[in-house]
Amino acid sequence: MKKRSMYFRMITASLLRRRSRMLVALLSIAIGATVLSGLVTIYYDVPRQMGAQFRNYGANMILTGSDGRFTASDMERSLEEIPMEELVGAAPYRYENVRIHEQPVVGAATDMAGAKAASPFWRVEGEWPASDGQIMVGANVAESFRLKTGDLLTVSYTPEEHAETDNTIDLTITGILDTGGSEEDFVYLTLADMEKLTGEVSSFDVAELSVSAQSDVLSRYAEKIGEAVPAVGAHLVKRVTASETTVLSKLQALVLLVTIVVLALTMICVATTMTAVVAERRKEIGLRKAIGASDRSIIGEFLGESMLLGCIGGVLGAGLGYVFAQQVSLRVFSSEIRFQILLIPATILVSVLVTGLSSLLPIRSATDVDPALVLKGE
Question: pTM for this structure?
């Protein structure tokens, strides 16, 4: 115990005597540990962050009926195969040919809350329908019929089995949908209003799902849905999932490359500092060897100094790295990052190992000092 206490006092005293030089090494280690900790935190949190960003571009899974339409029960059973915490939004759609001012228009009945969650990129002038008796019309439809929010709109439907009579329903326009796509050619009403208009219980043509998961996980969910619900086929939206996978892999590769470069620069800085320290202490090393100090004790002292620096730098870097990662996340993804508690000991351990490895060559050269030459002043 006394030997350990003396050893610790010896290496701390040695560091304090060379504060300016050791401070440079400590700063390089702390900066390296900060970047390492921050980038690794970002690396592991990037899939979640990127997934949240890509959910703004719409659904990444589509459900269709194996033989035409599928029921609400089929929809519920399909959603049971996806963890609720990963399901961002689910919007079933039923399409029917309806009429406005005796002109044919495609009516899309859906769960408005689910559609809003699954398609956050939709721009609505006004409000989404919040209850039955309300309707949202596409921009092209609104322009064709000169409709605006607040208008009362009569929608007609002709049942196939009773072609001689029309069903009608009066709905209030709450919003105009502007997407820049084919969605602008539809009118959107609630499932209950569509049932009232057609006189039929709703079954669905398609359902759009937004799931916070990577493509490989989505593929497994699709397979599970196909096995559990034969009436439903699940398909991935390739343009979304493929883009997400490509961007994610490239971003993670970039983070990994930067981490490797930072570690290399940290090792070079520490090795340079320790080389200068060894050269500065040649006389001290020669004197110690002359009075009987072993190479092992000299290496142990220098290695202890470098690893103590690595430990201190790792502690500083672990804390500062989280702050760094948090700021990057807020500015790039506009959301807070998750704190990885296991990253603290990992950062400290890596800092100690990197410092120790980068110090081995300079420390090894300390044992090559010839006491006779050094004491003679050569």
Answer: 0.64
